[in-house]
Structure formats: structure tokens, C-alpha cells
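Lecture notes, part 5. Sequence design as translation. It can be helpful to think of inverse folding as translation between two languages: the language of shapes and the language of residues. The source text, in C-alpha cells, appears below.
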């Protein structure tokens, strides 16, 4: 039967984007039996498709295909697993769906676990356990995440003041909002989105010497505020890099700055030397969680790699593989924050926001450096 199924990693009629990074994330979700995952996976050697949360034995990676929905799996000739019954909505999933809807309608107030238990007709402990297993967050964490999203949107958009954003999102006070939203900066700074701030930048070539040959990573832009480097971007054209900077800091004053040549040289030194540390002042902006991930990335030794799962475990959040992968994808400082050192659980390169070929070249260079020590 194995020969009757497609031999690609992603079936063509699925609605999920075909990216190596996304495929790596799905595989990590299968390995950790993520109950919050919304895709399906099929095993070519058995002809069966399952939910990622299925309790069956994990298959070999090379035998797995991913599907956006049940219909896509069926059209490719796979049949539903009798254990996890992916073609049916489990009773507990329907219950959690009702609770999610209930919470989303009550973001303006606190909903207790006892109240959710009355809505579900289950014991509070059962509601807590099932909700967490299916959604991946506790009811309280889910409600806080929705309020946090609303707070960030109000803060950067329609709210006339920070106070209005706090109470408009349903928080009881500024400290609760700041803690839940994990802005990674003061609310006023987040609200400004760089307004009135001057950000200088410089662009140069990124030469790469590997296996005795000179190649290039293309163009590299280094941008900095008065506090430190806020972005390191890779691209093919200077105009492309300037546009990305403008999108990142839409209300800041961007200006070429020749005095940043030293910062550019320090970044490029990472491509030809092996300094013990990169002594550049940094002003990287993100949530508290993203900051933890970026700090962990900088701790990965040059010439080595780790998986998304290992990185999640390193920051003390072993079940947050998807969030860790997303934080890697949102890394604002290429090379300085070495997200290129994260690979799939099977050792494959997976994705890289600046291109897999650049990632391969960077890892090859670092491997050569490590061997020569």
C-alpha cells in the first residue's frame, strides 16, 4: 500500500502554506501530541490519517504527510484512524468550542472556573484539564491572551489613551495589562511605534568565505537607535531592505548613518572570525517571551544546532514549540541572534526567514570554524 500514496511532504490541494518552517512546526506538534493543532497527518505505510493528538505510536518522519482538512486526506486515499476518529468531532472538543465562544463574549469581565463548569455541565477540574489539553492553554490563560491581543490593538490604534486601552480590553488595571500583553517595552513606547524616534541605518555587502571559496549572503542592513542595534536584515537589494525597515518602524525617522559602519563591521565579523562574544549594544523590541527565545538563541554555541523542541525546553516551556518557532521567525537581527542554528527535529534545515540557502551557507561556515579550532 505504501506505493499508492504521494511521496511529497505536503499534499497539493491542502490550504496550508508549503513552507519548510511550517512543516517542521507540524512535525514537532505531532511528536508532542499537541491537542490544539488544527491540521491532520497521514502515514503512507498504513494508509491512515490522524489528529496530531492521537495516542498511537509516532510514525517515522519520512512516512508522514500533512493535510489542512479531512477532505484533502480522503481525496488522497487515506482512511480515518479508529483510535482518534479524526472524521468526528469529539464530545470534549465540542464542549471546549462552546467554552471558547463563551470566554470570547465575556472579555470585559473575569470568568471563573466555576462559571465555566456550570456552562459545560462538568466538574471544574474536568473543565480545566480538557480545556488545557484541547486548546493548549488554561481557560484563564486563554482569556488573558484574548484581552492582551485587544489591548495591543487598542494601544497601537483607536484608544485615545493608555488608560482607555487598559480598561477597553477588559483588564482591571495597568499592571495586569502590562503583565499579560508582554509588550517588551513601556506602553507609551509601544503606542508610539517609533514616532519621533530617529533610527539610523547603513547597508553593505555580506561576503562569505567557506570551503576556500568567496560567496555572499547578499546585502545586509544594520539599523540602530540611540540605545543600540534594533535590526539586522538580509536581502538582495538595498531598496528592499529600506522598505522592510520602514515597515518595522512605520512612525520613526529613518536616515542613512555612516557612523554605523563600526556596527556593520562587527556584524560582518561574525562571518569571518570567531569572537567570544559580539559586543554590540542591542535594542531589540518584542514581547517578553520573544526576548527569552532570542536570548536562548544567542546561547547556542557557534558550529552547533538545536531543534525547536530543544529550544522550547531550554527556556522552560517545552510545550510551546509553535510559539518558539514563531519567535525565531520574528527575529529582528539576523546573524547577531543566530536563529539559523535551529533545525528540524530530524536534523533538516527547515525554514529561515532570509532563505534556506543563506542558512545552509551560515551553518557550513560555522561548522568549518568549529573544526579548525
Amino acid at each position: 500500500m505504501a506505493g499508492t500514496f504521494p511521496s511529497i511532504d505536503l499534499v497539493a490541494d491542502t490550504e496550508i502554506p508549503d513552507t519548510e518552517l511550517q512543516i517542521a512546526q507540524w512535525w514537532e506538534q505531532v511528536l508532542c501530541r499537541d491537542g490544539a493543532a488544527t491540521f491532520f497527518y497521514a502515514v503512507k505505510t498504513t494508509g491512515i490519517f490522524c489528529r496530531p493528538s492521537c495516542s498511537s505510536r509516532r510514525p517515522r518522519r519520512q512516512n508522514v504527510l500533512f493535510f489542512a482538512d479531512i477532505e484533502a486526506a480522503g481525496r488522497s486515499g487515506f482512511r480515518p484512524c479508529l483510535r482518534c476518529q479524526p472524521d468526528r468531532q469529539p464530545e470534549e472538543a465540542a464542549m471546549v468550542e462552546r467554552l471558547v465562544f463563551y470566554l470570547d463574549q465575556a472579555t470585559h469581565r473575569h470568568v471563573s472556573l466555576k462559571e465555566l463548569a456550570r456552562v459545560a455541565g462538568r466538574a471544574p477540574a474536568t473543565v480545566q484539564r480538557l480545556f488545557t489539553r484541547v486548546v493548549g492553554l488554561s481557560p484563564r490563560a486563554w482569556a488573558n491572551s484574548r484581552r492582551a491581543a485587544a489591548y495591543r490593538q487598542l494601544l497601537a490604534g483607536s484608544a485615545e489613551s493608555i488608560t482607555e486601552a487598559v480598561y477597553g480590553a477588559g483588564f482591571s488595571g495597568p499592571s495586569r495589562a502590562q503583565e499579560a500583553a508582554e509588550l517588551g517595552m513601556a506602553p507609551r513606547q509601544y503606542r508610539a511605534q517609533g514616532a519621533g524616534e530617529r533610527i539610523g541605518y547603513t547597508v553593505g555587502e555580506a561576503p562569505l568565505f567557506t570551503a576556500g571559496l568567496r560567496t555572499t549572503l547578499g546585502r545586509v542592513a544594520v539599523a540602530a537607535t540611540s540605545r543600540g542595534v534594533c535590526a539586522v536584515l538580509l536581502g538582495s537589494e538595498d531598496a528592499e531592505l529600506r522598505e522592510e525597515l520602514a515597515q518595522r518602524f512605520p512612525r520613526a525617522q529613518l536616515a542613512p548613518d555612516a557612523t554605523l559602519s563600526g556596527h556593520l563591521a562587527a556584524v560582518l565579523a561574525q562571518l569571518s572570525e570567531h569572537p567570544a562574544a559580539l559586543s554590540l549594544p542591542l535594542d531589540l523590541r518584542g514581547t517578553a517571551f520573544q526576548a527569552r527565545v532570542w536570548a536562548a538563541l544567542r546561547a547556542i554555541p557557534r558550529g552547533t544546532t538545536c531543534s525547536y523542541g530543544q529550544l522550547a525546553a531550554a527556556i522552560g516551556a517545552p510545550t510551546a514549540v509553535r510559539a518558539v518557532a514563531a519567535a525565531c521567525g520574528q527575529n529582528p537581527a539576523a546573524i547577531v541572534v543566530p536563529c539559523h542554528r535551529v533545525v528540524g527535529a530530524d536534523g533538516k534545515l527547515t525554514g529561515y526567514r532570509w532563505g534556506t540557502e543563506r542558512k545552509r551557507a551560515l551553518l557550513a561556515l560555522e561548522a568549518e570554524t568549529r573544526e579548525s579550532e
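The translated text above is only one of many valid answers, since several sequences can fold into similar shapes. Strands lie at 40-43, 48-50, 64-67, 79-80, 198-210, 213-224, 229-235, 253-256, 306-307, 342-343.
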